[in-house]
Design brief:
Length: 335
């Protein structure tokens, strides 16, 4: 919503804005933006590789989880009233290939984790990631042929991946690959397969960012990545291109859209909300987490800044935020 400054502001001393800041009760009464656990999606990393279920070095406080660990995380989400988890796999390096067939194997770690969570805690929504990077020998989100990330073959692979995740019981699919035409292809395939109620939260305004570095460590893609992702992710300076990407994904059948990364792109969040009036989410990505957590652990910032960053996303028009801080913040909100 575009906000206009109210035309009438009484001059001092008739107007004293501090009157409404005097007590916690008054401040609560006039609060414009309120953060609740229902605004949060909690991304977690899952693995079945022996010994890999440890803390991620560049994301202190974040551990990769086994399937059982993921079920416990879902139970914790339910207890804290966090509506959804988002799953990212750390795949066995031996299963990463150029063809990426592991990505749509019904028995891959993501699909097994989806089934386990939905069986144990059905009320917690499970969101997934659709992109080939955790399964790809070269760390790219798409299939690579002669050094080129090929669009249309990748879309076919992503459709298979989407169907396998929907079959496993995913509630929300999160295509993060940035190929052209993927949302339309997935939506058509989901309809044809009878998965008419599976939602798509499209990573639509996804920028080619340096802030994904720690995530690539978490899924084991950083050492592998050959080159960069600039032929499919958006240039950080391009707002209009991001808005076109949002329009395209909505026209192709996305139910919700995402802006990613979060904090350096709050202007995009606001423009997407004002321009399209659809549910908008920001992803407070791994590098943002690392930055905050590094400063907090060094004693340079107080942990309270985390909630402040999340209120900022809501004030910028977001309906919710994907954040590694979800359980900690939900716990704090509970008081
Ligand atoms: C995979 C994907 C990435 C993230 C989510 N899905 C990394 C990338 O595009 O390189 C980043 C999330 C984060 O940094 O927390 N396509």
């Amino acid at each position: 919503m575009s906000r206009t400054v109210p035309p009438i502001v009484a001059a001092y001393p008739s107007g004293r804005p501090r009157r409404l800041r005097r007590t916690p009760g008054l401040r609560a009464l006039v609060a414009e933006t309120v953060l609740t656990p229902a605004d949060l999606i909690w991304p977690i990393f899952v693995t079945d590789v022996p010994g890999a279920d440890v803390e991620v070095a560049s994301m202190p406080g974040v551990r990769r989880l086994t399937v059982e660990g993921a079920v416990r995380a879902a139970e914790r989400a339910a207890e804290l009233a966090i509506p959804a988890l988002c799953l990212f796999p750390f795949t066995d390096p031996a299963r990463r290939t150029e063809a990426c067939a592991e990505a749509w194997d019904p028995e891959n770690i993501t699909n097994r984790a989806i089934r386990a969570i939905k069986a144990a805690v059905p009320e917690v929504m499970v969101m997934t990631d659709i992109a080939l990077d955790p399964y790809n020998i070269n760390g790219h989100d798409g299939l690579v042929r002669d050094g080129v990330i090929v669009n249309d073959e990748t879309v076919e692979a992503l459709v298979r991946m989407a169907l396998a995740q929907a079959d496993a019981g995913a509630d929300i699919l999160g295509p993060s690959d940035m190929m052209d035409g993927r949302i339309g292809a997935m939506r058509a395939a989901l309809e044809a397969a009878g998965h008419k109620e599976v939602a798509i939260l499209s990573y639509a305004a996804k920028f080619a960012s340096g802030f994904y570095g720690p995530f690539r460590d978490a899924v084991g893609a950083s050492g592998r990545l050959v080159g960069d992702k600039k032929t499919y992710q958006i240039d950080p300076g391009n707002a209009e291109e991001a808005l076109r990407a949002v329009a395209r994904d909505l026209a192709e059948g996305a139910d919700m859209v995402m802006v990613k990364p979060g904090m350096p792109y709050l202007d995009i969040c606001r423009q997407v909300k004002d321009g399209f009036r659809v549910p908008v989410f920001a992803y407070q990505v791994s590098g943002e987490y690392a930055m905050l957590e590094g400063a907090i652990r060094n004693g340079w910032l107080d942990r309270k800044v985390v909630a402040e960053t999340l209120v900022g996303f809501k004030r910028a028009g977001c309906d919710g935020v994907l954040t590694y801080y979800a359980p900690e913040v939900a716990e704090a909100l509970r008081g």
